[in-house]
């Protein structure tokens, strides 16, 4: 397959990283910071390994890390993340559940998808498509100008289904590494004008310029809840800084980020951002692990768990599946915290609010991505596209080439 290139989007540990123009396979190297037994695969640290790093901190190191996070947040995050909840007229039939009964319907997901598409429209990523208004009329635009919409981490493809149904998008590509039952593909293909292609591949290995279906085409990359470092793999895959040299042309990016606790150093696109702020590689991994507090805090409040000990959060492993996080207590809650966690978790909860700190860590990771896109020649924004009571994973990253 000309679009398969092992590890081409994997990134590196280099100080000064340059994206290459062409297929270049990359093999992962083991980190020297922790042993191979604590690694998940060759490159990625799992939650247990990150917790080991967290528990290795002294009280003074923990205080210094919190101070770094607070300072970085105050410098870079306070003027971003504007709330923009959209209910576009094009999506009214989905919002009102007036859709094919074969399509699974959960209102909270429809509200998220509608707001995401509405913000894409406001940002200009849907202007060039034929938009259906509430009366069913269509704008007449040159079909050849319509971009291919590529959904990364597409899952069953129901975001693309809504996009096609509401905005009359006719050329869609679904990228997904897993096999799913009950996909949207069947009902999508019943639409006569739809050109649909599903590609089963890991984003880490996807070389877009090798896809014949994209040759000499414009495309828009989008995704809802692209877990952890899959967002960084996608940004690398699109290579916005090389867009002008490409045989396929990037028109825009819209990614709803999530699961920041599984972000990884190697693929993260803007390591320089954290290095300039004084964060080490170890501290970066700890920061990603701390992000789980933001999601756990929201879940705890919604479940009326106000009396749960602050320590409970750090006695859990966070499920890597988005929107289905589980936060169970450890089996033995009477274990001496000093013995089990070396006191670090107790120190943390005595110093800061865990949920607020987790939220700040999440936003720092997304701001680094924002800056990377801007440095790559893109106009980019971060939007809070739904309220936290709908989902705490409510950040939308938007980007398009500067005209």
From TrEMBL:
<keyword id="KW-0819">tRNA processing</keyword>
<dbReference type="GO" id="GO:0106050">
    <property type="term" value="F:tRNA 2'-O-methyltransferase activity"/>
</dbReference>
<feature type="domain" description="Methyltransferase TRM13">
    <location>
        <begin position="111"/>
        <end position="399"/>
    </location>
</feature>
<keyword id="KW-0489">Methyltransferase</keyword>
<keyword id="KW-0862">Zinc</keyword>
<dbReference type="Pfam" id="PF05206">
    <property type="entry name" value="TRM13"/>
</dbReference>
<dbReference type="GO" id="GO:0008270">
    <property type="term" value="F:zinc ion binding"/>
</dbReference>
<comment type="function">
    <text>tRNA methylase which 2'-O-methylates cytidine(4) in tRNA(Pro) and tRNA(Gly)(GCC), and adenosine(4) in tRNA(His).</text>
</comment>
<comment type="similarity">
    <text>Belongs to the methyltransferase TRM13 family.</text>
</comment>
<keyword id="KW-0949">S-adenosyl-L-methionine</keyword>
<keyword id="KW-0808">Transferase</keyword>
<keyword id="KW-0863">Zinc-finger</keyword>
<dbReference type="InterPro" id="IPR007871">
    <property type="entry name" value="Methyltransferase_TRM13"/>
</dbReference>
<protein>
    <recommendedName>
        <fullName>tRNA:m(4)X modification enzyme TRM13</fullName>
        <ecNumber>2.1.1.225</ecNumber>
    </recommendedName>
</protein>
<dbReference type="GO" id="GO:0030488">
    <property type="term" value="P:tRNA methylation"/>
</dbReference>
<keyword id="KW-0479">Metal-binding</keyword>
<dbReference type="InterPro" id="IPR039044">
    <property type="entry name" value="Trm13"/>
</dbReference>
């Amino acid at each position: 397959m000309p679009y398969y290139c092992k590890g081409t989007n994997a990134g590196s540990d280099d100080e000064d990283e340059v994206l290459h123009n062409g297929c270049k396979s990359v093999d992962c190297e083991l980190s020297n910071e922790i042993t191979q037994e604590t690694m998940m695969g060759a490159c990625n640290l799992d939650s247990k390994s990150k917790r080991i790093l967290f528990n290795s901190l002294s009280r003074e190191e923990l205080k210094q890390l919190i101070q770094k996070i607070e300072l970085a947040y105050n410098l870079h995050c306070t003027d971003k993340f504007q709330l923009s909840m959209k209910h576009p007229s094009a999506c009214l039939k989905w919002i009102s559940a007036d859709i094919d009964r074969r399509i699974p319907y959960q209102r909270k997901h429809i509200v998220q998808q509608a707001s995401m598409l509405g913000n894409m429209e406001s940002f200009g990523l849907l202007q060039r498509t034929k938009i259906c208004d509430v009366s069913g009329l269509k704008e007449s635009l040159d079909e050849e100008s319509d971009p291919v919409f590529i959904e990364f981490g597409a899952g069953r493809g129901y975001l693309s289904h809504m996009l096609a149904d509401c905005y009359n998008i006719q050329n869609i590509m679904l990228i997904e590494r897993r096999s799913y039952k009950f996909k949207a593909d069947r009902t999508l293909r019943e639409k006569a004008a739809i050109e649909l292609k599903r590609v089963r591949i890991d984003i880490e290995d996807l070389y877009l310029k090798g896809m014949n279906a994209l040759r000499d085409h414009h495309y828009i990359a989008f995704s809802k809840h692209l877990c952890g470092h899959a967002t960084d793999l996608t940004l690398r895959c699109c290579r916005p800084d090389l867009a002008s040299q490409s045989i396929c042309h990037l028109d825009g990016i819209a990614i709803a980020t999530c699961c920041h606790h599984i972000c990884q150093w190697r693929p993260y696109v803007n390591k320089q951002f954290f290095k300039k702020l004084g964060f080490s590689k170890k501290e970066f991994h700890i920061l990603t692990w701390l992000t789980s507090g933001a999601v756990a805090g929201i879940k705890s409040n919604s479940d009326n768990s106000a009396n749960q000990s602050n320590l409970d959060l750090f006695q859990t492993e966070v499920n890597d599946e988005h929107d289905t996080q589980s936060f169970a207590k450890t089996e033995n809650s009477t274990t001496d915290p000093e013995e089990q966690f070396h006191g670090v978790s107790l120190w943390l909860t005595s110093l800061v609010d865990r949920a607020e700190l987790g939220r700040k860590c999440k936003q720092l990771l997304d701001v680094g991505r924002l800056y990377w896109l801007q440095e790559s020649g893109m106009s980019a924004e971060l939007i809070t596209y739904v309220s936290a009571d709908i989902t705490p994973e409510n950040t939308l990253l938007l980007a398009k080439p500067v005209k």
